[in-house]
Amino acid sequence: MRPCFQIEIVTPKKFVLNGLWFGSKKPKRVIVWVHGLGSSMFSKLGIVDQLVDKETAVVMFNNRGHDKIASVRRTNGTYVKAGAVHEVFTDCVDDIQGAINFAKKQGAKSIYLAGHSTGCQKAVYWASKKGRGVKGVVILGPMSDYYAELVAQGKKAIKKGADQARAYAKKGKGGVMLPESVWRWPWIADAQRFLSLYSGNSAEEIFTYWDTSRSPRTLQSVRMPILVMLAEKEEFSDIPARQIAAWFEKHLRKGRAVVVPRVGHSFKGAEKAVAAHIKRFIQG
Question: Where are its TM segments located (predicted)?
């Protein structure tokens, strides 16, 4: 059991995000953690518990993609639809910047960004657009959501969903949810979210290891060091983890990729090993 502080983050665009601060109020370094699709600030606390020490604090916060369906409040008291179903991927830049700004105000000399699952896309996308004020990025389980569903559902199912999503978007109904007859629970999504996740060519489709003929320009544009951590028994890909690691190392400007043995996408059971890799990265 580790104590923490409840925090409230206000983003540059004046959205209010809830969060938790683990560690000293005046640390030497801060890790800003970005959770995955439909997850929350309560995920990966086992890893956080191993990371926090006298010099290191961790910020966990609910980005706009928390849980399946949610809402996010503006400082003026109005609300917008959010959650994995309704979030707009590019809003992650505002969310992450808000958390980084909060960490800066605490006086930390070094700030790092970490993401898990779809939080990896968000962390790398932020780094490609902003990139200032952070010394490095850690991504755990950076799987392509498109390729994961391609493997699980097949091209026919994805095309059916994409056709319906594009029909809604064409009519200005990007916020309308796809019917369950088109796309199944629990990975329901509105039209714009579906196209972002599963079209294969959106701003969110950053990790294109599934098509080696494509150039991952967003990833290649990131100048800061990136530590990529892949699960040996990753269940959201049929491509071996070491092959994916080699793809990342080919395209990273700075950094490296490691495969964590004997674990799946959640990295459960390897919290100490994951934290050890991260500590070497941020202290190196």
Answer: none
Residue 38: burial class (beta carbons within 10 Å; 0-12, 13-18, 19+): buried
Contacts of residue 261, defined as CB under 8 A and 6 or more positions apart, other chains included, come to: 232, 270
With a cut of 70, say whether residue 25 has pLDDT above it: yes
Cβ pair 9, 102 in contact under 8 A = yes
How is the chain split among helix, strand and coil, in percent rounded to 5? 35, 20, 45
Question: Which residues face 33 on adjacent strands?
Answer: 60, 114
Question: Is the whole-model pTM more than 0.90?
Answer: yes
C-alpha closest to that of 282 among 138, 149, 179: 138
Sequence ranges of the domains in the chain? 4-144+212-283, 145-199
Angle between helices 145-153 and 191-198 in degrees, nearest 10: 90
Question: Rounded to the nearest 10 degrees, what angle do helices 92-105 and 118-129 cross at?
Answer: 80
**Could you identify the residue written with the tokens 């929350």?**
40
Per-residue model confidence as pLDDT tens digits over 252-279: 999 999 999 999 999 999 999 999 999 9
Helix, strand, or coil (residue 232) = coil
Residue in the block written with tokens 């991504």: 139
CATH architecture of 4-144+212-283: 3-Layer(aba) Sandwich (3.40)
Helix, coil or strand: residue 139: strand
239's tokens: 């491509």
Where does residue 30 rank: exposed (0-12), middle (13-18), buried (19+ CB within 10 A)?
Answer: buried
Note the pLDDT of residue 184.
78
CA torsion angle for 35, 38, 40, 42 (degrees, to 10)? -100
